[in-house]
Each structure stands twice: as C-alpha cells, then as structure tokens.
Design the sequence.
C-alpha cells in the first residue's frame, strides 16, 4: 500500500459544502475520505456520492450499534450510498456483527469493519464503564470477536495494534484514528500516535483530521505526513 492509500482524511464539518471543498482540495493526495456523524446527519447519503467524485474512497463512519435487524438494515442503506467502507461497534455483540456481515455481503459493500474502543477512552475513563481489563485487552477481545464474525478489520488505537496484530494476524485490516504529528494539539483524543509510529506498529489506514484540515495550508500539511510515513525506517 502506498502512502496516499494509507491516509484517510476526516471531513468533520457541520456542512457538506465545506466537506466537499476540502475533499476537492486534497484530491489525489489521500486515498480515503471519512464522512462522519455530524455532516452525514446534516446532508444525508447524497454527500457520499459527492465526496466520491473526487476520486477518493469513502469511509462512512457512523458506528452502528443497535439490535441486529436494525443494524443490518442500516448497513444495507449505507452500502447503497456508495461508501467503500462502513463501521459498526464490536461491542454490539456476535448476533449484531453477523447480521451486519450478511447485510454487507448482500449489498456488495467492499469493507465492513468494527470499532473496538474509542480513542477518547483511556484506563481512567474505563473505571466509569462496566468493562474489565486494560484498553489493549478489551480492544484485542473485541477485535477477535469481529474477526470470528467475518468482518474485514477494526478501528483501533495505535496503542492497541500490537495486541490486535498478535491475535488477529497481519491480514486483518486496521484503521487507526488519533493520529497526531509530533507537537500537534491532542484535543479530545487520549490514546494517540504519530503517523510514522502508527505505521511502524502495523496500522493499515491512518485517520487524520484537524492536523490537516485545520492547518493553514492543508495540502502542504498532508504532504508532510505522506513524506513521514514514506521515509525509510531504520
């Protein structure tokens, strides 16, 4: 996978026009564009097609989590939008994941992945939740469940990559948010990594938003990240 194919730009905007404008501005530099909840709720499925006209594949990041029948229907609808990749929450359980897989197959969705543990949750945050273990251990268990249910990969923190790679092998897709170049503002992320360290740890796709989209010169900021992950590692 080349450097541009490893990068997914998070188009986290309140309006579709802003998302499309940024996707057009970065066209040809990033292989993926992520459409999330805020702009999708504002604009609807037609936005996916508008983003796809830039030539990038679209990751529809809606994190479905509901009863199996509802999630299956949502996955089928998401596939009809033209998205290349859609995600569900692994914590929805085996029946939900299997229903999502069946719906994705029937609708011809290329990639179905599962969210393990949000990067905003660290060990301290987990004390408020009915989850036993460390973030890495929880993420590994959920990744194994997703793999056993036939999903193509997971969304996970870079800090969980070693555990997930060890349990699920090298061919299980890993999509990693919480990517911040050295010195960047971490904002609401708690478990983060630099682009180069995430790739070295086994990340397949890096989800990067504000360090690029909020930069004074987004194409230049993205080019620096592409250079970083393309550089030979000693």
Sequence:
């Amino acid at each position: 996978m080349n450097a541009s194919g490893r990068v997914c730009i998070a188009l986290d905007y309140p309006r579709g026009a802003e998302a499309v404008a940024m996707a057009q501005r970065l066209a040809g530099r990033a292989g993926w564009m992520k459409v999330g909840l805020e702009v999708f709720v504002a604009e609807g499925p037609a936005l996916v097609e508008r983003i796809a006209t830039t030539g990038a594949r679209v990751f529809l990041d809606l994190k479905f989590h509901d009863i199996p029948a509802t999630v299956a229907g949502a996955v089928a609808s998401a596939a009809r939008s033209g998205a290349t990749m859609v995600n569900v929450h692994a914590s929805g359980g085996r029946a939900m994941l299997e229903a999502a897989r069946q719906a994705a197959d029937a609708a011809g969705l290329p990639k179905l992945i599962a969210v393990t543990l949000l990067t905003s949750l660290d060990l301290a945050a987990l004390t408020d939740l009915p989850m036993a273990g460390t973030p890495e251990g929880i993420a590994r268990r959920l990744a194994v469940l997703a793999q056993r249910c036939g999903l193509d990969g997971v969304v996970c923190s870079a800090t969980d990559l070693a555990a997930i790679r060890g349990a699920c092998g090298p061919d299980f897709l890993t999509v990693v948010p919480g990517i911040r170049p050295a010195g960047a503002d971490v904002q609401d992320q708690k478990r983060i990594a630099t682009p180069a360290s995430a790739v070295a740890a086994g990340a397949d796709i890096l989800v990067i938003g504000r360090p690029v989209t909020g930069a004074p010169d987004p194409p230049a900021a993205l080019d620096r990240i592409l250079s970083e992950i393309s550089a030979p590692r000693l």
